[in-house]
Amino acid sequence: MFDLTGRLALVTGAGQGVGAGAAHCLASQGATVLVNDIVDERAERVAVSIRSAGGLADALAFDVTRREEVCDLLASHPLDIVVNNAGNAGATVMQPRPFRDMGPAEWEAPIDVNLRGVMHTTHAALPGMVDRGFGRLITVSSGAGVVGLGIGVAPYGAGKGGAISFMRHMAIENAALGVTANSVALGMMEMTEVHDASLVEKLASTVPCGRLGTGEDLGPAVVWLASDEASWVTGQTIHVNGGSVTS
After folding, report:
1. CA distance 208 to 239
2. How many other CB atoms sit within 10 Å of the CB of residue 75?
3. Is the separation of the CB atoms in 59 and 115 below 8 Å?
4. Minimal CA–CA distance to 84: which of 137, 8, 37, 29?
């Protein structure tokens, strides 16, 4: 069950964090994984780690917000699975603050990576999927794209929410062509750049399950959605959040 042998998967933003966990999980089920990151060294490190564990992986560094670069690099890769994981604010650091205090330059990056980046990879991979009669589009979204939050992440939430809506349209457009499109809405996840134990504990205390999520929590959901067994699951938003958001 959930055998991905022979499938070629791309995981964007997989050079660290939950993306790396998803890439490892896909490889453990037999997929060949293209590990993408905007930083080549990070992508290569994860690819080496997957190969060391007996999996199949190659690094593929590019910026998902650069459409021509995305299309050129993916043209030679017949992708079966695309996991749109690149997020946050892309190459920049997201600075949460009220939208009323922001200027347009501050909301461009979160929308570029979280919405346009998803559209770019989808546009590049989808024609080949349709031609081959098989494809899995999986977008890693967030609770911020599902519910309103008062923590100063409105543009990020707009990008994530837009990507969820986009996946729903892709699901309906391609349902009869062998291609599914789904989203995974994550809750509070472990962050590689946070090393303050008291902050981590405080954040974890807000999650009903009592801990932050990890790539190992995301990975099984991605594997399921990528599998043959999930061929009748499309247009859905799967919540992986420790109980933080229920619906």
Report:
1. 14
2. 11
3. no
4. 137
